[in-house]
Design brief:
It comes from Actinoplanes digitatis. Residues 6-170 form the DNA primase/polymerase bifunctional N-terminal domain. InterPro entries: DNA_primase/pol_bifunc_N (IPR015330). This is DNA primase/polymerase bifunctional N-terminal domain-containing protein. This protein is an alpha+beta fold. The protein has two domains: 2-163, no CATH class; 180-272. Helices cover 36% and strands 14% of the residues. The protein is built from eight helices and nine strands. Strand 4 (105-107) and strand 5 form a beta hairpin. It is elongated. The N and C termini lie far apart (54 Å). 40% of the residues are buried.
Amino acid sequence: MLFDAALAYARHGIPVLPVHTPAAGGSCSCGRAGCERPGKHPRLRHGLTEASVDPRRIEMWWARWPQANVGLRTGVVMDVADVDSPGGWHGLRHLLGGELPRGPQVRTGGGGWHFWFSPIGYGNRVRLLPGVDWRGSGGYVIAPPSRHANGTTYYWAIRPGDPAAVPAALRDLVAGPDPPSATPEAGRDAIVHPGRYAAVALEAETARVANAPVGTRNDTLNRAAFALGRLVGAGLLDAATVTGELTAAARWAGLGRAETTRTIRSGLNAGRLRPLETTRRRVA
């Protein structure tokens, strides 16, 4: 079944790679004690770079490792929003105006979701939103019918087809600061479309505060104020606007007036001292 699935993905042009298999008791076929990613890291010596659509190579791999989980390279046929918590699901849904994408959807073994989108050329983004990572160029995901370390199986909630187009709000969020390793060109902008990025960041941070669970609300507010304070320091957002939006979100979440005012002021001031650079310095 795993081999057949790997061949089917390859026939659709998606580079495939064999991934380690979960073993008894939550361990991993890699044999390392305390493996942090059981059943989720490549078996191949050179990892992702060896991913292939060649059926002969895939047959050779699964003849050697018939129980290998199936990994799919992203950024070629599809990019993937990897949602691993209820908060991430709600955050993505909020960002997309209350709707979720209608393209292919995978239920992961850990209870999360993989939403497939048409590739847009950006690399991976960790914590795009709380509980949401982006798998793009240079990334991979585990695909059905692979097994999770808890014994459950990845499966299709909406069967494969044409990946969904990336909505503008999500695209703008993905097109945020690139990690240095992904932007080797000297002088390349650190933020693509800084005005739109700042607007999306403001919306995402205020949503995070408004929906913060009891016990995390003040910390969430402080983190949001710091993150937006960096954009204020860079001249991308107005301090009064940020204060007003965060205050409204905090009151919605149930925080008191004095606590809200104190936390926002502290977070904003700290963020302003570390403004986000909108351009990368040129390398001599």
